[in-house]
Structure formats: C-alpha cells, structure tokens
Design a protein that fits this description.
single chain; alpha+beta; six-stranded antiparallel beta sheet; 5 helices; 17 strands
Length: 305
C-alpha cells in the first residue's frame, strides 16, 4: 500500500502558475530494512534471475574502495567482481511506471566499487527489463555469487529492503530554465520570506524514487543517448533519509512534521529506514533511459555536495 504523505506547505503551481506545465509524477520507494524474496519488489534484495543467463560481473581494471586510516582510497583485489542488486520492481507494484512492451520487471545492479576514471562515484550500473512469467517458466538461477570479504566498498552495497511505492507530484528544482527562474525569482523570494525555505527544498525529493526530477545538488547534467536524444530520469538512488515534506505521516510526531524518533520504539523505526548507502555528501546516483531508441540505452550521473 502507498504511504500517506503530508500536504505541502503551499501549492507552488497554484501560487506560481508557470510551474503547472512542469509537473511530473514520481514514485517514492520508501525502502525499509526487511527480508524481501526473489519475487518481491525491493532495494538490495535477491533478484529473480534466469538460470540460462550468467550473473553479471565487472571485470574493469582499476577498482577502488573507500579506505580507512591513512589510506583514503584502497585498491581492491584484482579480478572480476560480481555486481550487487540495487533495485527490482514488478509492474504489479508500480502500475504508474511505463514498462516496455512484453516486460513487467525492471532490475538494476551495479559494481559496488569506484573506478579509476571517476573516483567520485562511478559504480557502473546495469539495467535489465524482463518478463516474470518467462523467467519462472525457464527456471531460475540458484547459485547466485555471494560477496567476498573486502570485495566491495560497503557504502555502495544496499542492504535488503522492502519498498512501498508511493506516487507524488514533483516540480523542477535546478532544472527550471534559467530565463524562467530569472523572471520568477522575485515571487520565489516572496515565498521564501513567507515560508522560510527556498522552493527547491520541496519541489523535488532527494529520495530513492522512480521518475520525476533528479533533485540535483549540483548543476543539472542530463545525458543524451548516442543518437542525440535527451534521456529521461528513471531512478534516483541515495542514502538520504526522508524528512519534512517527504516523510510519511505515520512516521511523524503527532501534530508536527518531525520524525517520531522520540516516540516508543523510535530507534527501531529509525534503524529500519533506507538501504544504508553513502553516495558522497548528501548525494545520489541518477539513472536515465532513452525510450526513443529500440535498444533502450541507459546512462547515469553521480551528484553530491
């Protein structure tokens, strides 16, 4: 069941009608620590994987992991390493997501190590669109490789989480065209004076989600496919917890927008939130998809303060 969200402090499209045409639906995932199965939608959970398809490995040279002590970066063990599950979603759980024809499962894995060409966060994700019935009929992979000790950067391995897909409406933050932002700035500053925060804080969510807008913490960097098409935002993956506008009502202190951390059993609630990822400082990894190309190419961008 979708979570229930608090209403926004103000309707930006009503107060500033120019925003109305930019509204997009996003699907907030709200990952919570759990024990999902291979036929469950999840983050970091086991994947429904066809027996006739080898588990993907990353054999790229130059793997690194975040180190400790005097060694900020430590080179990992040589050789290929198995990719780790990040997201699995079934169409029955996310009816708002447009699955390519003939598919009803989407899976995202990545190499949970840093790579030489981008020490800031190139985890090299891989995206798969599948058909659940076809996979089950053909048989499932039983011998899934288990992570070896010291094989990954632990900050990039999501713990198994159930998800609770919840639709919400977003507006562009830093994706608002510059000329429009310049024209609207006086009215946006009035809203900031009235409500105490800049509009980007509630326009789009820096959360684990599907669709909507990336909640850029740096300048927007939308990728284009090899044929020049601007790609669409498919996933945001982050370790940032929900708060304020995006925190479900059942996790609020009664009558406030604050988390229930002081309530009985609050620590258990807090400990269950999120996939325990650390992607930079208040950062995220955004995955993009080109639906205009028949092979559905994807790309990613890393973003943090």
């Amino acid at each position: 069941m979708p979570r229930k969200l608090p209403p926004p402090l103000f309707d930006i499209a009503e107060l500033i009608p120019e925003f109305a045409g930019f509204a997009k639906e996003t699907i907030l995932l709200y990952p919570r620590s759990g024990e999902p199965g291979v036929r469950d939608s999840s983050m970091g959970g086991p994947l429904l994987w066809p027996a006739d398809e080898p588990w993907p490995y990353c054999a790229q040279a130059g793997h690194w992991a975040y180190g400790t002590g005097s060694a900020l970066w430590e080179q990992s063990k040589p050789g290929a390493v198995p990719m780790v599950p990040v997201i699995q979603l079934f169409a029955r759980d996310v009816p708002w997501l447009d699955f390519p024809q003939g598919t009803d499962v989407v899976q995202l894995l990545w190499c949970a190590l840093i790579h030489e060409e981008d020490l800031a966060g190139a985890v090299l994700p891989k995206l798969f669109w599948r058909n659940e019935a076809q996979m089950v009929a053909a048989g499932l992979l039983r011998d899934v490789p288990a992570p070896g000790e010291g094989e990954y950067d632990d900050d990039l391995v999501p713990r198994p989480c159930t998800v609770c897909p919840t639709p919400a409406i977003e507006y562009p933050g830093y994706d608002l065209p510059d000329e429009l932002l310049t024209a609207l700035r006086p009215r946006l500053e009035e809203l900031q004076d009235r409500y105490g925060f800049w509009y980007t804080e509630t326009a789009s969510a820096l959360q684990n989600k599907v669709g909507g807008y990336p909640a850029w913490t740096q300048s927007p960097d939308w990728p284009h496919c090899g044929r020049g098409h601007r790609m669409e935002h498919l996933f945001s993956i982050t370790g940032e917890p929900a708060y304020g506008r995006w925190l479900p009502l059942d996790e609020h202190e009664p009558g406030t927008t604050q988390p229930t951390w002081d309530a009985p059993a609050a620590q258990a609630v807090f400990d269950a939130i999120g996939p325990e990822l650390e992607i930079g400082d208040a950062g995220g990894l955004y995955v993009f998809l080109c639906r205009q190309c028949p092979d559905l190419p994807h790309a990613h961008r890393y973003d943090c303060h």
